[in-house]
Write the structure tokens for this entry.
Amino acid sequence: MTNPQIAGETPTPRHHPSPETLASFAAGTMRSGFDVVMSAHLQACAECRAEVAQFEQLGGHLITEIDPVALSESALAATLARLEEPSRPPPPRTAGGLDQLLSGARRRWVAPGVWAARVDTPSHHDDRVFLLRVAPGATTARHTHAGAEFTQVLEGALDDDGVIYRAGDFVELGEERTHHPKVHGSDACLCLFATEGRLVPTDLIGRIAFAIANV
Ligand SMILES: [Zn+2]
């Protein structure tokens, strides 16, 4: 049973990351790039923030329970050497960091009513993180992704194979799949995506749009 949304209230997200995904984020083992989309969801979702905090507490507790083991003589030197290496910037867990990252993305119109912007974030090989804004009535490209795809709906609503995702909702696809998300309702839809590997458009409009957007 879901509560009807009241105009003017901040909607409560109804679609969330899986517990495994929340745990992976809390443990810091999430694929880089995907953590940006997770950060956007956490910004919108108090429920998931609380779950991540619980996982983090649990992780700290487990570490204190591990029996100590003797370290080799070279372990300290290796650890100190690693501290000298330039480290990857941390994922944008704060609201300011995420907003700054997204506002720096360069928009490219890829079709009437549709723009895409690559988000400049450390990501894995061919993974892609991008913003996509689709006007009502405009269509997105039918596409296949080789692995996982995370989507956070920032504005408007999305219809993905008959399931409606609204602002604040998270869409987690864990495996290769072809799908064709559409705008739902009369407002434009703004989404943040991360995909594992390059997206493969399966129609002509997609091939043209993806070439222009370099997504
Ligand atoms: Zn959530």
Remarks:
- The chain has one domain: 13-215.
